[in-house]
Amino acid sequence: FPFRLFPLREHGMNWRARPLTSQEIQAFRRSKEVMERFVRAYELMLRFYGILLVNKETGELKRAENWAERFDNLNRFSHNNLRITRILKCLGEMGYEHYQVHLVKFFLTETLVEETLPNVKRSALDYFVFTIRSKRKRRELVHYAWQHFRPRDSFVWGPRDKLLKYR
């Protein structure tokens, strides 16, 4: 069977790659070597996208030196958004929810605040945010997106009354 760099419990675009089982995920998570390789693969993909993992413990990210060139690639080729969604889902499966949160917030900041990734904005809002497993963290990210989305009246990713009351 072909192997996947970021395997999931669901079928992807490669019909020959079989989905992971819960038992396989648990075995991966118990293996220090597998988890170290997983983090290295994550760092490799981040660098490809022009992003650096600043802190392996927290998941904090920043732009890489080549960010402008790599962001241009992200803006031009939307197939990367599918890969990013897959990476985010896999981070959740492997127990790296804190990495998920930092990556989604990074993309929300770059799309809504810095406006460097306009062609990634819809994927960040429609898909990336909703890969977050923690309801509380997902709500925080939706609220963050709402705070920075313009025009705010066009924000459809959360109920306005709840967003106004969110603490």
TrEMBL record:
Family note: Belongs to the opioid growth factor receptor family.
Pfam (any one): OGFr_N
UniProt xrefs under InterPro entries: OGF_rcpt, OGFr
A GO term from the CC aspect: membrane
Domain Opioid growth factor receptor (OGFr) conserved residue range list: 5-163
PANTHER family (UniProt xref): OPIOID GROWTH FACTOR RECEPTOR, OPIOID GROWTH FACTOR RECEPTOR OGFR ZETA-TYPE OPIOID RECEPTOR
Sections of the chain in a coiled coil: none
Organism (species): Furnarius figulus
Superkingdom of origin organism: Eukaryota
Protein name: OGFR factor
MF GO annotations: opioid growth factor receptor activity
